[in-house]
Every structure is written in C-alpha cells, then in structure tokens.
Write a structure and sequence with these properties.
By secondary structure, the protein is mainly alpha-helical. It has 5 helices and no strands. It folds into 2 domains: 41 residues; 104 residues, no CATH class. The chain is rod-shaped. The termini are far apart.
Length: 147
C-alpha cells in the first residue's frame, strides 16, 4: 500500500470519527433536552412524588424532634432548628432513593438548589405548626383569664 493511500484512509477514518463523535454528542444532547422538557411537562407528577416524601419525612422529624416544643408553645432554638432541618433534608433524600434524587437534582439544576427547595418546605411547615399555634392560643387564653 502506498503512502498516499494510507494517508487518504487515515484522513477518511479521522473524518468518520469526528462526524460520529459530533452525531453522538448531538444525540445525547437532544435526549437530555427531551428528558428535561418531559420533566417540565410532567412537573405536577414529579412534585406529587416529592411532596409525598417531604410530607412523610416532616411527620417523622416533627414527632421525633419538634412535637415536644410545640406542645410547650415554644420554638426550637437555632441550633436545634438547623439540626432538624438538616435531618429532614437527609431523610427526604434517603426516602427518594438514588434514582429520584438524581431526577430532582437534574430538574432543579444542582444539589444546592434542590436542598434549598427541601429546606424551604421544612421552614414553611414549621412556621405553620398548628399544634404550637393552638398551644400558644390556649396559653394566652389562660393568661387573659388569670388577669
């Protein structure tokens, strides 16, 4: 085989490899974009799964770490609140499992944003604590009656 033929074969082979790489990259990019579009279109289904797990995790953390404070009409101190919030986030991630965790991280963009969503849910549920509000109302009524 002559050098010219070998160079031509090498050149053609290089172009075939480059084209195949570009095609595979574009195909993968197209699949990711389609998947992301599917996530947005089916967001309510995704969020229903997430909300179910967040609700269950909040119930567990609430019973374990918050209920006693609510019954006493007090709020958690900052250290305990941060610990409960972190435990909540970890429990949700554990309950979701690695596949759903990956899906939600992909949906929200990164781990930090996803964890922020979890923390905001926890904060809202904690601030809307009906038992603590009821206990505080009851305590206020007793103070008013005592006066």
């Amino acid at each position: 085989m002559s050098i010219a033929v070998a160079i031509t074969i090498g050149f053609v082979y290089t172009w075939i490899c480059v084209l195949a790489t570009v095609w595979i990259t574009q195909s993968n990019k197209s699949k990711r974009e389609k998947h992301r579009l599917d996530q947005v279109v089916n967001f309510s289904s995704y969020y229903a799964v997430l909300e179910y797990h967040m609700g269950r995790a909040y119930e567990i953390i609430y019973k374990d770490r918050i209920l006693i404070y609510s019954l006493e009409s007090t709020k958690l101190d900052t250290k305990d609140f941060l610990a409960a919030s972190k435990a909540f986030g970890s429990l949700v991630l554990r309950m979701l499992g690695p596949n759903f965790r990956k899906e939600f991280v992909d949906l929200y963009g990164d781990e930090e944003t996803f964890f922020f969503i979890l923390t905001e849910y926890f904060n809202q549920k904690y601030e809307d604590d009906e038992i603590r509000k009821g206990s505080m109302d009851e305590l206020m009524e007793k103070e008013v009656e005592a006066d």
